[in-house]
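note to self: dont lose this again. the chain is below, predicted strucutre after it. 79 aa total, dont forget to put it in the shared folder this time
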Amino acid sequence: MSKLYFLTAKHVVDGILATGAALSNIFVDFNYQSTSCNTSTVTTPYFYTIKNIIASNSLTDFALLELDSYPEDCMLTYA
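---
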């Protein structure tokens, strides 16, 4: 199975790690909706933990993270 990556801001990852949380305690969620997002639908998000930081840079504030597991087919991820 291919690896799946998630791109985010480095300051977000740094802020979480600064609290003493382990990398495996960081998770991303997909398909999140709530009534505060101008919709009447509330969905259950899908959570995935982070396996590894592949690359990051403070100057450009990015972090490329590898997910620990592959999202469900319904998540409409792009490979």
